[in-house]
Specification:
By secondary structure, the chain is of the alpha/beta class. The chain contains 14 helices and 11 strands. The protein has a 4-stranded mixed β-sheet, covered by helices on one side. Strands 5-6-7-8 form a 4-stranded parallel β-sheet. It starts with 11 loop residues before the first helix and ends in a 38-residue tail after the last strand.
Length: 403
């Protein structure tokens, strides 16, 4: 039985649950946020991380492509979107997208990550062609992860198809996985106040469930540090956990720290390191059925991402290359890191660096581990393993097999 050195005695019952592998309740999550015992919460999250992933901390070589910032939705929290006639507006051609994908693959990327604005003039066929052209531009082992649920809903509207039909068409064109963006906070209150035109929470969850049922693995996110409450954060995590119980296709959870610069909410303060680490740790404790928790270094910074590997995090994302969305909101982090940078960050924390693909299959291990972790997706080419609690799988565009 692990011993947690808790300063806050009110966390003792929660610590017993964590040690026993018992699911935490909404009240437990609220109590964790109410506590200032960051190190105690971190210890529990680190134990939960080790129980699933051992000493591994994953990273990947990936290429981000943001084909346009022209968007019909002008959300208050977004610094990326532009109208077509605004300074700074841009759009890429299909040739430019395909060429960027090919360059990324040539540089060793195992993932091409595409998210964009909702361009009012792009046709449904343009989106399908974008995936097909990207798929054709990269080797078979490179995963095409493209389009948030917000973009999927947009495609359904312009094509007059269902979101499931859109996902099926995209999969046929070569889509392997969906990113987790666009979830923000599943709260009607915050949605009406800050992103009233974006996809509703129940629709976002339905789209990801449909993707899972079609064999498309996805990630999930939470945008925090704006106008939401900590209770709303916990409610968001529980809805993600419930969806994972149903369809089992979430690979990783990524909390996204809000960057207010150049948005209509720019008077809000930035998140603190304390809040970033606490949120990452609480996510690991609450999301017992999602295998990975990622610290997206572009949004939380390199130092917090590194320290977070002692607070429940087992993934620090990737080399990225040319991320625009967060940087247009004032992020001061680099737009790219080298593999050596990431390996050094992980090694300094006493963890085992593991290069992966989108589906967490191993590309290369950079150190020996004392014992294999409980959750292991295998080597490149293995059938993707997704769920923790139910051992569910998603194909990610390939044949599935249960373990």
């Amino acid at each position: 039985m692990p011993v947690f050195n808790l300063i806050d005695p009110t966390l003792a019952t929660i610590a017993e649950k964590v040690a026993a592998g018992t699911r935490l309740s909404r009240e437990d999550g609220i109590a964790l946020y109410a506590s200032n015992d960051l190190l105690g919460i971190g210890q529990m999250a680190d134990f939960a991380r080790r129980r699933i992933n051992g000493d591994r901390v994953y990273f990947m070589v990936n290429r981000h492509i943001n084909p346009t910032n022209i968007c019909r939705n002008r959300c208050k929290f977004c610094a990326f979107a532009r109208n077509a006639d605004e300074p700074g507006a841009y759009e890429m051609t299909l040739d430019e997208v395909a060429n960027a994908a090919a360059e990324g693959a040539a540089d060793g990327a195992y993932e091409i990550h595409i998210v964009s604005g909702l361009h009012p003039d792009w046709s449904y066929e343009f989106y399908i062609d974008m995936v097909a052209r990207t798929r054709a531009a990269v080797p078979d082992h490179v995963i095409v992860q493209a389009f948030t649920a917000v973009e999927i809903e947009h495609m359904a509207i312009i094509s007059k198809k269902t979101t499931r039909e859109v996902l099926s068409d995209l999969k046929d064109a070569g889509l392997d996985a969906l990113p987790g963006g666009g979830a923000e906070i599943f709260s009607d209150r915050t949605r009406v106040a800050a992103w009233d035109k974006k996809t509703k929470g129940d629709v976002w969850l339905r789209i990801h469930g449909e993707a899972h049922e079609l064999g498309i693995a996805t990630n999930c996110t939470m945008l925090y540090g704006h106008i939401e409450t900590t209770d709303e954060r916990i409610d968001h995590l529980i809805l993600l956990r419930e969806q994972q119980d149903k369809t089992g296709g979430f690979l990783a959870f990524i909390p996204l720290a809000f960057h207010a610069a150049n948005t209509e909410l720019e008077d809000l303060p930035a998140t603190t390191g304390f809040d970033d680490l606490k949120t990452l740790a609480i996510a690991r404790l609450m999301l017992d059925n999602i295998p990975h928790v990622k610290a997206f270094w572009i949004m939380v910074g390199l130092k917090i991402a590194q320290i977070a590997t002692a607070f429940g995090v087992d993934d620090i994302d990737g080399t990225v290359v040319e991320e625009r969305i967060t940087h247009m909101a004032g992020a001061t982090t680099p737009e790219a890191l080298s593999k050596d940078d990431l390996v050094t960050m992980i090694t300094e924390g006493g963890r085992v660096p593991v290069e992966r693909d989108t589906l967490y299959r191993i590309v290369k291990m950079y150190a020996e581990e004392s014992a294999a972790p409980a959750w292991h997706a295998g080597e490149i080419g293995a059938p993707p393993l997704v769920g923790v609690a139910k051992g569910t799988v998603a194909t990610g565009g390939h044949s599935a097999a249960t373990e």
